[in-house]
Amino acid sequence: MHLRCVAIVAIVLWVGLSESGTPCNSRRFNHDSVVCVCDENFCDTLDPIEPTARGLLNVYESDRAGKRLEKREVQFGNDLPGPIFWNVNLERTERFQEIIGFGGSWSDAAAIGLDRLSPDLRTKVLRSYYSTEGIEYSTARVVISGCDFSNRPYTYDDVTNDWELNNWSLVEEDVNMKIPQMHEAVRHAGKPIKFMGSSWSPPAWMKNNGELNHGGQLIGNAGSYEWKQYARYLLKFFQAYRAAGIDFWGMTVQNEPMTGWDPWFPWNTCGFNAEMERDFAKLDLGPIMEEGGFAPGNFSIMVLDHNRPLALDWAITVFSDAEASRYVAGLAVHWYFYGTAGPYQVYDNIHTRFPDKFILGTEACNRNEIDGDHIGLGLWYLAEDYAHDILLNLLHWVGGWTDWNLVLDDEGGPNWVGNTHSAPIIVNPGAGEFYKNTQFYAMAHFSKFLPPGSIRIGASPGVEEEGTVELGAFERPDGGTVIIVINSSDMEQYFNLNDADLGVVKVKVDPHAFSTWVYYR
Ligand SMILES: *[C@@H]1O[C@H](CO)[C@@H](O)[C@H](O)[C@H]1NC(C)=O
Ligand SMILES: *[C@@H]1O[C@H](CO)[C@@H](O)[C@H](O)[C@H]1NC(C)=O
Ligand SMILES: CC(=O)N[C@H]1CO[C@H](CO)[C@@H](O)[C@@H]1O
């Protein structure tokens, strides 16, 4: 082809694609759906969400058949044949929780995976997650020292009995990986990211079993010198990151504290019960963080950071105590065993009792359990599990949802105890590629469209019940209305959305699809 023709074709292509980002470069890995492949030359992108003309509804859909946030325009007053329509009415006077944010986590495994990529590919991952050409994450959980997703067990002070913390220091994973990567993410986000810290284990010598794993609790008790020194150990982390230009929004007291009561527990942990977290927050951690420059109001301390069955008991124990409550802003919850974790309505109950406290999902991940291939590239049910749990949390006062490892390698690690999993992005530095797995798009259907400050509003039907729709409605800070629908059935679903001003718009949602609708009035 003549060079000038090449240039013209390229311009035409570029103009055409720029209208709704660049599409997924899909690849199938022997599963029911696809991944989107990114390399140095190409990575799928999205446009920022901008107000549409009145009367227009933008539908973004991803499905098992391979659509990935594919955008189409629908007009209010349209005609659409379909067998049965769900009638959706919005109740704008019913206003529920404010969105805190959506994000992923800087475990060491994520930091190492990102570090192994070329600078260009690393930038593409961080832009895919945090920029407006990506899925606009607004939060990030950061592991305080190591956890199972590290390639070695360690803490920031492994010099035995160094109670004065003279030997405390950040490690290579922080200085060379997490801190520069977090700075880069903030640059691409173009706005602050809510960073939250969580520790898995104190130094082994601070624990009564002398090990990072196999359960064990802090030596001493609330108010003791030992517990205060552990609080100072944690404070040093936030001060060191602040000195490096990264300010944290919050922390949890302890990752999955109940695992610290299991003497066979394989990886880094420390046992607290609800009373211990209450008293640690009240007597040690809260005051020491405040004195150290992380005061309530500017810095959110969260308790629990573990599964839903524990939530009500912990909320009552901690939030009923006025002094502890002064230091503790919210309840952090994990999704594990969600199928058997009991009804989500427990969060409604907690909100009714303690309306000033927020609830935030701080960890979730999954893996392919069918064979040894844990990362399950292109498995649709991994995404459906995410979307279902996110939506049901949002329908019950939870303010956001945090995915676990931002990236993992093609074995689902590294993980020093072999607890490998899947992640929304799997890196393959050897091939110069990374793969956006199905969970990435489940996150996107929420994170891209619900910036912090969005509010959930009433919608009917809007609550999950056998045989009814899974649907949530929200208002964005820019005035946009967002409707998110999940269809996990093999049948198309049809909707009549009634807007008080604009009338009715009819929308079809494909089988096994996530569908996010945005419009402005
Ligand atoms: C710990 O810190 C002390 C005081 O700064 C120093 O003398 C000692 O060498 C350090 N120990 C180790 C193992 O780094
Ligand atoms: C929060 O931080 C700002 C700026 O650093 C400061 O002016 C304000 O007093 C702090 N608020 C609290 C409650 O500490
Ligand atoms: C929107 C909608 O109708 N979603 C349905 C999709 O399929 C599942 C069953 O797998 C239903 O429970 C949802 O309500």
From TrEMBL:
Pathway: Lipid metabolism; sphingolipid metabolism; Sphingolipid metabolism
EC number(s) reported in the record: 3.2.1.45
Residue span(s) of domain Glycosyl hydrolase family 30 TIM-barrel: 99-450
Record domain Glycosyl hydrolase family 30 beta sandwich: where: 453-516
Enzyme class label: hydrolase
Swiss-Prot/TrEMBL catalytic activity: a beta-D-glucosyl-(1<->1')-N-acylsphing-4-enine + H2O = an N-acylsphing-4-enine + D-glucose; an N-acyl-1-beta-D-glucosyl-15-methylhexadecasphing-4-enine + H2O = an N-acyl-15-methylhexadecasphing-4-enine + D-glucose; a beta-D-glucosylceramide + H2O = an N-acyl-sphingoid base + D-glucose
Signal peptide: 1-20
Signal keyword on record: yes
Keyword terms: Glycosidase, Hydrolase, Lipid metabolism, Signal, Sphingolipid metabolism
Pfam families: Glyco_hydro_30, Glyco_hydro_30C
Molecular function, one GO term: glucosylceramidase activity
UniProt cross-references to InterPro entries, sorted A to Z: GH (IPR017853), GH30_C (IPR033452), Glyco_hydro_30 (IPR001139), Glyco_hydro_30_TIM-barrel (IPR033453)
Superkingdom of the organism of origin: Eukaryota
Record SUPFAM superfamilies: (Trans)glycosidases, Glycosyl hydrolase domain
One GO CC term, this protein: vacuolar membrane
GO biological process: one example: regulation of TOR signaling
Keyword presence, Transmembrane helix: no
Family: Belongs to the glycosyl hydrolase 30 family.
Name of the protein in its database record: Glucosylceramidase
